[in-house]
């Protein structure tokens, strides 16, 4: 596959997600681990007291699967869920949600233009960073939105670096993902999914990128099942201020 011709970015990618929004939940439902793994990554934030008193950001919420995962992990939190695709966001917002959940149409790096400024106690980013043109800029934006000591969980396709996992991902895409997407009339988006995972950082490289962006305590955790080595949870925090009186 020629990745340079299949990857979609920015407005082109948002339009592709708009077109695919009507069938997106059906296709992700074919992956038995899709929602369970999102819930696992949200739980890994280890938010206290069910999120009571916390304000959380769901960055790149899509049709709301990540929002539901975050809400399950923190049922008492306020959640602001954002996405650059208007079509995906409409699908998400049309679902039943408690009063503490709101949806905003904006890319993460331009949330201030939409009136979203934080600070947030935690950020959950499901399948976001692989799809952005400048992951370093988005990491910087997320760090600025977090309160000091706030937590970040990134859940994404990020290959381990093993040739076996790379080959398995391509085999699944060629046999299942791209044909299923083609049947819905959205072949371009699912070819993008295949190519974007192959082009994205390996898990160790993305962890390095997070640390370079100023996050601390970076950890990489696997998910079980066939996606082991293909999907990872990345955990980190914005550094907390040094205690008063501390010396360098």
TrEMBL record:
The keyword Methyltransferase applies. One of its GO terms (molecular function) is methyltransferase activity. GO terms for biological process: methylation. Its EC number is 2.1.1.-. It is an enzyme of class 2 (transferase). Keywords: Methyltransferase, Transferase. CDD domains: AdoMet_MTases (cd02440). The keyword Methyltransferase applies. It holds the Pfam family Ubie_methyltran. InterPro entries: SAM-dependent_MTases_sf. The lineage of its organism: Bacteria, Bacillati, Actinomycetota, Actinomycetes, Kitasatosporales. This is Class I SAM-dependent methyltransferase. It comes from Streptomyces toxytricini (Actinomyces toxytricini).
């Amino acid at each position: 596959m020629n990745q340079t011709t299949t990857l979609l970015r920015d407005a082109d990618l948002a339009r592709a997600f708009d077109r695919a929004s009507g069938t997106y939940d059906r296709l992700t439902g074919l992956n038995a681990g899709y929602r369970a793994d999102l819930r696992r990554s949200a739980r890994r934030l280890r938010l206290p007291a069910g999120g009571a008193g916390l304000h959380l950001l769901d960055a790149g919420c899509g049709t709301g699967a990540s929002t539901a995962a975050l809400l399950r992990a923190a049922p008492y939190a306020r959640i602001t869920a954002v996405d650059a695709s208007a079509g995906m966001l409409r699908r998400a917002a049309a679902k039943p949600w408690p009063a503490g959940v709101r949806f905003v149409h904006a890319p993460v790096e331009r949330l201030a233009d939409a009136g979203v400024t934080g600070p947030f106690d935690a950020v959950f980013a499901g399948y976001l960073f692989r799809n952005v043109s400048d992951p370093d800029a988005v990491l910087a934006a997320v760090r600025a939105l977090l309160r000091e000591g706030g937590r970040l969980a990134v859940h994404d396709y990020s290959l381990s670096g093993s040739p076996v996992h790379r080959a398995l991902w391509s085999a699944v895409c060629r046999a299942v993902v791209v044909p299923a997407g083609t049947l819905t009339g959205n072949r371009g988006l699912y070819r993008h999914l295949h190519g974007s995972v192959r082009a994205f950082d390996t898990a160790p490289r993305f962890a390095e990128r997070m640390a370079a962006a100023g996050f601390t305590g970076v950890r990489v955790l696997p998910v079980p099942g066939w996606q082991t080595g293909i999907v990872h949870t990345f955990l980190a925090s914005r550094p907390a201020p040094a205690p008063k009186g501390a010396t360098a």
